[in-house]
């Protein structure tokens, strides 16, 4: 396994696993997240997952006081000592959920996607609802889930000219990804439909409705 470790600052180190979007890499990173969160070192603060990396944030002063050595070197050693070969195996990742998202299809771009892809609107809906998607990460906007991987038949590049406003709850696609806009926002993805579920609520215990590692199934309503 090719692991690249990079210091981002005196209090953050990233671990990169390859450079492609894949379900296997994402499962490995989520498995690592569970392990690290359950086996933290003194000074550990939090971690953030992306498509093919995981960033560990820590308090360098606490690490130094506990280890009496370079904080960054200690964290790098901690990372290298993790059981990477065991991560991402077939066992179910703890706390992972399979969540059904009800969608009213007929979004503002459904007809455009139908024309560009040479598929009927019903075929697009059937393809979009046929798969179980992995939540790769949360980003762009608070609560915005990056989901994949789309059926190749739905692969479509981002809009050449982004929309000035995409409505809250819009379920959209771009490249081999699908996502849900948690609030009104400009955006370059093609909208297929809309859900009434709240993707982000600052007053909720789990503010983001979805989290990295969850699986999502879209259901047409």
Any descriptors?
5 helices; alpha+beta; 13 strands; Gyrase A, domain 2; 2 domains; 221 residues; four-stranded antiparallel beta sheet; Cyclophilin
Task: Provide an overview of this structure.
There is one protein chain. The protein has 221 residues and is of the alpha+beta class. It folds into two domains: 3-86, Gyrase A, domain 2 (2-Layer Sandwich), CATH 3.30.1360; 99-220, Cyclophilin-like (Cyclophilin), CATH 2.40.100. It contains five helices and 13 strands. The protein is elongated and about 65 Å long. The model has no long low-confidence stretch (mean pLDDT 92).
Number of separate strands: 13
Q: Give Rg in angstroms.
A: 19 Å
CATH fold-level name of the largest domain: Cyclophilin
Q: Give the topology string: H per helix, E per strand.
A: EEHEEHHEHHEEEEEEEE
Instruction: Output the number of helix runs.
Output: 5
Please state the overall shape, judged from the principal axes of the Cα atoms: elongated
CATH architecture field of the largest domain: Beta Barrel
CATH C-level category of the largest domain? Mainly Beta
Number of domains: 2
**Class inferred from helices and paired strands:** alpha+beta
β-strand amount: 25-35%
Mean pLDDT comes to 92
Percent range of helical residues: 10-25%
How do the strands of the widest beta sheet line up side by side? 5-12-9-10-7-6-13
Largest sheet: 7 strands, mixed, barrel
Uncertain runs are: none
- CA(first)-CA(last) distance: 43 Å
CATH H-level superfamily of the largest domain: Cyclophilin-like
């Amino acid at each position: 396994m090719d692991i690249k470790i990079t210091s981002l600052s005196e209090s953050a180190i990233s671990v990169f696993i390859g450079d492609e979007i894949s379900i296997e890499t994402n499962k490995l990173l989520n498995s690592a997240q569970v392990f690290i969160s359950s086996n933290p070192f003194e000074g550990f603060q939090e971690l953030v997952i992306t498509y093919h990396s995981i960033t560990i944030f820590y308090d360098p002063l606490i690490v130094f006081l506990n280890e009496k050595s370079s904080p960054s070197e200690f964290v790098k050693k901690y990372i290298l000592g993790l059981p990477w070969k065991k991560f991402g195996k077939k066992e179910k990742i703890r706390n992972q959920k399979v969540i059904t998202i009800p969608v009213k299809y007929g979004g503002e771009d459904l007809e455009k996607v139908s024309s560009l892809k040479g598929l009927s609107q019903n075929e697009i809906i059937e393809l979009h609802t046929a798969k179980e998607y992995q939540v790769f990460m949360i980003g762009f906007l608070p609560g915005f889930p990056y989901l994949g991987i789309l059926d190749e038949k739905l692969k479509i590049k981002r809009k050449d000219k982004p929309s000035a406003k995409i409505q809250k709850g819009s379920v959209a696609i771009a490249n081999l990804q699908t996502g849900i806009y948690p609030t009104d926002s400009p955006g370059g993805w093609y909208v297929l439909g809309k859900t009434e579920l709240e993707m982000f609520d600052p007053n909720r215990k789990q503010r983001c409705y979805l989290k990295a590692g969850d699986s999502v199934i879209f259901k047409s309503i």
